[in-house]
Amino acid sequence: MKVIPGNSLDPNTAQTPGMNRATAINNARAGAEKIWAGTVTIHANAKTGAHHHGDLESIIYVLKGRARMRWGDNLEFVAEAGPGDFIYVPPYVPHQEINASRDETLECVLCRSGQDPVVVNLDIEPIEKPEEVLWKDPIHK
């Protein structure tokens, strides 16, 4: 058993322009072998390109703000989530993550079924093109 205080999360993890990640649970911090958990703060109006996370499952819990998710072979489906809502992202599902607000940050808790930062970028034209902040880094190319 391990309790990780909210004020001791580790920001020394892969970062992406437009968002800030902090690790709460992983192997090094808690001895976890099959999951990763942490927080994600997504800047106003930030949008990813189309991608999936391989065989990993992800659960996103929205703390503050408004998340818009697009998914499907052509990102043809859309749903929004607000504070208190959960989002489940199945393995291999193409999706785009969007902060639906131009003014407020989006704060979430993220849990993944593995510890590797798997991101498979896809050659799908995003319906909502990244505008002000493009998530583009070694993970989200």
TrEMBL record:
A molecular-function term among this protein's GO annotations: isomerase activity
The keyword Iron is assigned to this record: no
Assigned keywords, A-Z: Isomerase
KW Isomerase (keyword) present: yes
Xref: InterPro entries: Bacilysin_H2HPP_isomerase, Cupin_2, RmlC-like_jellyroll, RmlC_Cupin_sf
Cross-referenced Pfam families: Cupin_2
Annotated Cupin type-2 domain residues: 39-106
Gene3D superfamilies (UniProt xref): Jelly Rolls
Name assigned to this protein: Putative mannose-6-phosphate isomerase
Source organism of this protein record: Neorhizobium galegae bv. orientalis str. HAMBI 540
Classification lineage: Bacteria, Pseudomonadati, Pseudomonadota, Alphaproteobacteria, Hyphomicrobiales
